[in-house]
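Hi V.,

You were right to ask for the full record rather than a summary. Here it is.
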Amino acid sequence: MSYRQVLLDCVAGAFDLVLPTHCAGCGAAGVRLCAVCGLALQSVVATRARPDPAPDGFPATFTAGQYEGVLREVIVGWKDGGRPDLGQDLAFALRVALAAAISALEPRESSTICLVPAPSSPASVRARGYRPVADLCRSVMRQVPAKIAPEWSTR
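Predicted structure:
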C-alpha cells in the first residue's frame, strides 16, 4: 500500500469519527453506498408508468424503478436525510428514464418530451433550503446533447 493511500485512509477514518458515514441503501457502516446497493441503483430499468385512473390524453411517462427498496432509501436519504452526496447516483437513474422516453419516440413523431420535476411544497423548500428534484433535473439536462434535449419545465 502506498504512503498516499495510507494517508487517505487515515484521513477518511478520522473524518468518519466526526461525521460517520453509512450506506444510504442498507445502512452498512463506513461507506456512502455499498457495492450491493450501488449495483442495485446501476441496474435500474426504465418502464412506462401511468396513474390509475389516467386522465384522458395523459402522455407516456417513464420511471427508473419502483419507489421501494434501495431506490426508495436512497431517494429519502438524498431528499430528507441530508445526503446530497447521492445526487449523482440518482442522476444516473433519471438519465435511464429520460433515455427510454427519448427512444420511445417514433422518428417521424413531433412529440415533445418534458422533464417536469414534482414540485416541492413551500414548507419543504424552507426546511431543506433548496428544491432537490428541480436541481437534479437541471443537472441531468446539462448532460443531454442539445439536439435531443427535452423541453425543460419547472411547472
